[in-house]
Amino acid sequence: MTINQAGLDLIKRFEGFEPSAYIDPVGILTIGYGTTAAAGVGITPKIGMKITEAEAAKYLMLALDKFWASIAPAITAPINENERAAFLSLAYNIGPTAFRGSSALRKFNAGDKSGAASAILLWNKGTVNGKKVVLKGLVSRREAERALFLSAVAEPITASDRLKPVPFFAGLITSLIAILFSGKVNK
Predict the structure, then answer these.
(1) Is residue 170 over pLDDT 60?
(2) What amino acid positions are annotated as catalytic residues?
(3) Are the C-beta atoms of 100 and 110 separated by less than 8 Å?
(4) pTM, entire model
């Protein structure tokens, strides 16, 4: 998966699901979970168009895969899953070109994770009526992305951990094996 569940939930929460095409706060025709024609994932929103939530989720995942492929080569420092999810959410919202030119990426690649997290907050403006203005929704989204970026990541699961049976299932499996090989199967 291109993005972890925390990142996907963040994007879905801030984009919101809209089954009908609409014009977003900065004048872009949008549908589903913030999908625009510029995403290039096979849908061009038009006024009156409707899609299902399942279709919207599919277009979102296609866009996230595409956006990750576009921004990943620019990320030169080691990245964890929450940093990746936060950056992908940011890139999905501002576009991969803007992300690749961002101070958030420059600071991250230079090893300044704290500076990168703070730089995420700078992307809180949109153009409304020809003017750059701070948008409350973007302020909230950037704060959530920063929090995700800075949140601890659980220890990775090792191969040996994956092979350890869960106690309940271990007992169940042992019992089933004992029944199968004891010859005491009820007929």
Answers:
(1) no
(2) 15, 24
(3) no
(4) 0.78
Query: Which residue do the tokens 């029944």 mark?
Result: 179
* Residues above pLDDT 70, as percent of the chain: 81
Query: Which residues have CB under 8 Å from 139's CB, separation 6+?
Result: 121, 124
160: Cβ–Cβ under 8 A, 6 or more apart, which residues?
Answer: none
Q: Which CA distances in Å does 43 have to 40, 82, 122?
A: 7, 29, 30
In 3D space, the residue among 119, 68, 121 whose CA is nearest the CA of residue 92 turns out to be 68
Query: Which ranges of the chain does DSSP label H, i.e. alpha helix?
Result: 5-15, 53-71, 81-94, 96-100, 103-109, 113-120, 136-150, 159-163, 167-182
Burial class of 184 by CB neighbour count within 10 A (0 to 12, 13 to 18, 19+): exposed
Q: What is d(CA 76, CA 48) in angstroms, rounded to the nearest whole number?
A: 43
